[in-house]
Structure formats: structure tokens, C-alpha cells
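User: Can you predict the 3D structure for this chain?
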Amino acid sequence: MWKLIVLLFLSFPCLAAGTLKIATEANYPPFEYLDESGQFQGLDIDIANALCQQMKVQCEFLHKGFDRLLPGLQFNNFDAVIAALNPTPARRKLVAFSDLYYDSGAVFVARMNRYQSHHDFSGQSIGVQNGSVHLRYLIDKASMERVLVVPYHSYLTAFVDLQNDNVDLVLVDYAVAKVWLAQPDNKEFAIVGETLIDPHYFSEGYAIAVNKNNSALLEQLNQALQQIKLSGEYERIISRYLD
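Assistant: Here is the predicted structure, written as C-alpha cells:
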């Protein structure tokens, strides 16, 4: 019994030391990004900091590749992941998820007036982030079987290629598309068709991931999330980025 307790303690040392080590992929505004001074910013970062304040620990953020986030969490390289993650059935087999903190949906972005609907995409190239639910959607859906799927390490690179006509469309979260389209240089682009709300991929929402063996941290995060919602801090953070 004591051996088990010691092993569990050694598996999650950061939180015990008063620090919550949180990994993210900081190329996904407005959820997470690095500012000009290299500091972590974004909706997810503010949510995480508010949760850490409730839990009376210090947040330490780590910038990792998106497709390395969950494997790193499984090996206890960090305590939690907040990175606009949909808790899909496949991901739930790998890690545990907190209560939802944001309702998500996905959209296609392309040059304005080039497409009328999702039915016009045959033979077109679509940029998407590697390891994302958007990539899985494009691979799984029969309606997308005649498109060329182009995975990117970061959505920022995908959008650059869209601007340079190296891909025809990008599939991305609605909030990310909204922020990108609001930039002055992107007025020639628009959302194509309706927001995708397929419950198997997009509509459940975003949650924080933790190692399956760290149920104590999961409970702490859920309690802290409830507290920031009750205090009004949660709504202040959401409105700061998405109004």
C-alpha cells in the first residue's frame, strides 16, 4: 500500500510542489498564442490561470507540438493539457477530461465567393492541423473522400498557405476563423457554408486533459472551474476574447 502511495506521489510531483505544469500548442489564437515578448496569452491561458488561482498553485505553461500533447500527458511529462481539445471517444481512451469550458464548432475558410457550399470541394485541397479532430473529420467523412487533405504542424502555417493559394481551404474552429478573418489583411476570405456541429467531432466542446491516473487533479480542476463560473470570472474571460 505504501509503495503505491509513493509511486503515485512520484508520478505527479509538480502539483505537490505548488506548480501545475500545463502543456499547450501556442499557435492557436484566440485560445493560445505567444505574444511579442514570448509570453503565453489567450482564452485557454486565462482560464488556466484562473483555475490555478482557485487551486492556490502556480501555472507553468509549456509549448509543445499539438500531436505530442496527449502522448506527453500519458507519460506524465506534464500535469495537464489545455489546447482547445474536444474530448472525443478516441481521446477518452487515452486520457481523462475535465468538465467542458467552451462549446465548439468548425468552419471552412476560403477566398470570398469561390464556393457556395461544402458540396463544391471535390478535387480541392484543404489545410488542417495534424492530430486535430478536423483532420479526423476530413479523413472519415465520405463527402470529403475526393478532397486533398493537407496536414500542418500549425494552423498559422495553413492560413499562410491559404493566403498564397497553396491550399484552397482551411478547416478550423469557428472562433479561430472569426479572429483570423477580422484581421485587415484577410478581407478577401470568408467562411464557406454553415458551422459543422457533428457531435462525434466538434459540438461537445473543449475540456482540459489530465492523465487517467490523476483523478485527484481532475476533481480539483472541475471544482475550480465551477468556482470561476459562479464568481463571474469565467464569463469575463470569454467576453474578453469572443465578444
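DSSP finds ten helices and 13 strands in the chain. Residues 2-102+204-242 form a domain with the D-Maltodextrin-Binding Protein; domain 2 fold (CATH 3.40.190.10).
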